Amino acid sequence: MAQGLVQVTHTSSSRWRRRTGDYATISAALLAAGDGDVLTVSPGTYRENLVIERAVTLRGPERPDGGSVRLAPADGVALTVRAAAVVRDLQIEGQDAAAPALLVEDCVAELSGLRVVTRSASGIEVRSGARPTLRRCTVDNPAGVGIGVGGGAGGLFEECEVVAAGQSGIAVHEGAHPRLERCRVHHASGAGLSLSGEGSAVDAVGCEVYEIKGAGVRVASRAVGNLTECRVHRTSADGVTLDTDAVLTLADCEIHDIPENAVDLRSRSVLTLTRSTVRRFGRNGLSVWDPGTRVDANGCEIQESTGDYPAVWVSDGASALLDSCRVHDVPDALFVLDRGSRADVLDSDLAQVRNTAVSVSDGGTVQLDDCRIREAATGAWFRDHGSGGTLANCTIDAAGTGVIVTKGADPEVDRCTVTDPAEAGFYVSAEGRGTFSNCRVTGSGGYGFHVIDGCRTTLRRCRTERCARGGYEFADGGPVAEDCTSDRSSAPVTSEPEPPASPAVRTAGLLGGIPQQSAATAPPAAAAPASAAGGASSGEASGGPAMEARPAKEVLGELDALVGLESVKREVRALIDMIEVGRRRREAGLKAASARRHLVFTGSPGTGKTTVARLYGEILHSLGVLERGHLVEVSRVDLVGEHIGSTAIRTQEAFDRARGGVLFIDEAYALSPEDSGRDFGREAIDTLVKLMEDHRDEVVVIVAGYTAEMKRFLETNPGVASRFSRTITFGDYTPGELLRIVGQQAEEHEYQLAEGTADALLKYFAGLPKGPTFGNGRTARQTFEAMVERHAGRVAQLDDPDTDDLTLLHPEDLPREPRH
Questions:
Q1: Quick one: pLDDT at residue 594?
Q2: Which residues does the UniProt record annotate as the domain AAA+ ATPase (predicted)?
Q3: Is residue 316 part of a domain?
Q4: 740: enclosing H helix or E strand
Q5: Residue 449 is assigned to a structural domain of this protein
Q6: I want to staple 346 with a disulfide (CB 3.0 to 4.6 A). Which of 112, 186, 323, 623 is the partner?
Q7: Which of 672, 526, 501 is nearest to 585 (CA)?
Q8: Cα–Cα distance between 797 and 365 in angstroms, integer?
Q9: Burial of 85: CB neighbours in 10 Å, binned 0-12, 13-18, 19+
Q10: Whether 783 and 719 share a structural domain
């Protein structure tokens, strides 16, 4: 294609008309152009190295059907932009392996519709603090980097595409911080997206990385990435890798069809994974290594492994948190190994696991709360000495064996239910230990609890039902069983040994030491030891004797009698129904859905949050969930001390006062102010979270405050947010509801509203400003008190007031100024 002409439209020569000029080269046109001028390039091939240093517009032909503009010098940088210029609709070709084809530096240029076809060091390079905007640009560079951003540069890359790269598709380094929106990177031979170096960061939204010969996304050396609604798939190596203090957040992302690890973290890296999906991976879905490395996954799904490796692997002192996640269709769900390694799994589902759902070995630790394990060969296996942790309120359904403890491992298993295991519900051997409290095995194909080799296991208040070989099979001199029961519905086992003489050591499938009962004489389910849902017996909580429980219907009636709050009443009733039905299902030997009882109350002051919290505690007491049901109300001043260590003591004391009842923390967001710095409120939060875990069945915690502030508080404290089951919003009272509150106050104090007073009150409440200090119900009560004062001042002037004078409140008794 021959070289064409360049037309320059000079915009500054005249106020009433523009003049134009034609130039044989783009370089000549640039020399003649000034700021604001427009350079329109005719189709053709231009063998020039261009440098734009003025705020001009350089564009290809207005009609693209006439041909393209090719900028194709023999070597060097084809186009350098150093001004706030606009460049669009050009094809840039470079051949220099030591230089970029397009260089943008120290400017805020706008580049759109560019196609970079090159074999250069990089297709597009942005550096020296430049902040350009690139839209709909395409890079094809099989010899080097697709797009490189470094030297503190940034800018916006919108709907750009790297169709081929011999190295990384997009490389961000040297403290650069670009934003990528709806970009695509594919057919790169390095990482699709590479971030490295302290201060380097990327915000990417709606981007896609695929067909990569290497890792899809690589973050290293203190770089930071934030990816939202992005997809990474079809790589030859790991999908996402983090190394050396890297930090990455993935929200609403998909990582799939990865032959190696979907996500691999090492060397103190931190990953936050929210509402994201990991599927079809050849090795680990999440692979977490090294001390200080951690992953926090919330609302995520890990599924469909194509290899033979655990879906989640935590080792060498790393840690992982899985909250409200699903892991299914995998060989193994979670492996935690090596001393210092830890995994916390909350309210999650592990299902369709071909081997072991949870494996703990070599000194690792897990804590599973409110989790559900289904269709696994082994539900949980604590393999060796030093390995342990806690399983609390978990269910294991249709497993080969529910829980295995071997070789000196010593877990705590509390309030867990194993249903329909093919073999034993709980199996302990080879010097395994373990403490099992309030656990239940139903429908086992073998024994409920099978403890061999003289293992020193402790069982407290456990129960077995419908176990084919027997409820309990113990070796002599082994476990300690306290208050354990069985329905004795299984067939007699003739090979069971006799109970030993010591009453502390129980043996055999016949519950050695526990009286045998036929089905006709067995106690009903309700007579079994108290479970987590039922709580301990009344009066045993610390902090004083239990108050006598009012019937639940009576307390619910008081709740219903409150003015307004219809949505709040529905929420509380739904929660109470869940707890009550769960209790009845457990009594019937059925599985019950886990119901977290901690709540968040949001809304303006005076909307009834404290009153509802008090009634909620009473209802839980009447249902046997709480021992006392009393309310302890605290705020920041009650929890936060003035010096190091005092905050933990204050928080512990407040928690102890609330044992058996409700701890109500008003304005909880004050514990985590936005400018907290070294504020001791964080210590109160950390102490509270630990106490909630350690004593989850003894205290119900309710945090309350303004809606917006509470949302911020929960967002900045995911550890706190994960402990609460639901948020209940208390809406402001309507003028009509405030009138009803005044009417209730009047009736209680033997006053009446005279004719016209109700209408005057409606108008008064409708005119009150609803600012942050508005007191809602408190405003209604203060209004009534003010009316009584003004009534008294008026009636005191009468010589002989009658009954109407003494009881009727008139419109003139309303306060003149709003009271808050």
A1: 59
A2: 595-734
A3: no
A4: helix 735-748
A5: no
A6: 323
A7: 526
A8: 78
A9: buried
A10: no
In the predicted model, what is the mean pLDDT of residues 471-487? 86
Helix (H) or strand (E) holding 576: helix 566-587
Mean pLDDT of the chain: 84
Q: What is the largest CA-CA distance in the chain?
A: 114
pTM score, two decimals?
Answer: 0.61
Residue 540 has pLDDT above 50, yes or no: no
How far is 176 from 180, CA to CA, in rounded Å? 13
Q: In this structure, what token pair is assigned to residue 451?
A: 């403890």
Q: Within this chain, do residues 22 and 141 fall inside the same structural domain, yes or no? A: yes
pLDDT digits (tens, 9 = 90+) for 620-630: 888 778 888 88
pLDDT tens-digit readout, 169-198: 999 999 999 999 999 999 999 899 999 999
Encoding tokens for residue 677? 């710095």
| CA 368 centroid distance within chain | 16
Of 255, 349, 357, 251, the C-alpha closest to 311 is 357
Burial (CB count <10 Å: 0-12, 13-18, 19+), residue 571: middle
3-state SS assignment for residue 609: helix
Domain count, the chain: 3
pLDDT tens sequence across 200-213 = 999 999 999 999 99
Domain annotation covers residue 743: yes
- Which token pair is 600? 């968040």
Q: Which range of residues forms the domain containing residue 88?
A: 1-220
Instruction: Indicate the Cα dihedral angle 31, 34, 37, 43, nearest 10°.
Output: 10
Q: Does one domain contain both 664 and 750?
A: no
Q: Copy the structure tokens of residue 491.
A: 């067939």
**Residues 667, 169: Cα–Cα separation, whole Å:** 48
Q: Can you tell me the distance from the alpha carbon of 327 to that of 345, in angstroms, rounded to the nearest whole number?
A: 11
Q: How far is CA 570 from CA 321, 566, 726, 805, in A?
A: 32, 6, 13, 42
Segment (H or E) for 572: helix 566-587
pLDDT digits (tens, 9 = 90+) for 402-423: 999 998 999 999 999 999 999 8
Fill in the amino acid letter for 699.
Answer: V
Residue written as token pair 């290809």? 60
Four-point Cα dihedral 70, 73, 79, 80, nearest 10: -170
Residues 542-576: pLDDT tens digits? 344 445 667 777 777 777 777 777 777 777 777 77
Please determine, for residue 517, whether its predicted confidence score (pLDDT) is greater than 70: no
Q: Which residues contact 555 (CB under 8 A, 6 or more apart)?
A: 615, 618, 619, 622
Domain finish residue from 167, 191, 220: 220
**Token duo for residue 660:** 């058996």
- The letter for the amino acid at 804 is D
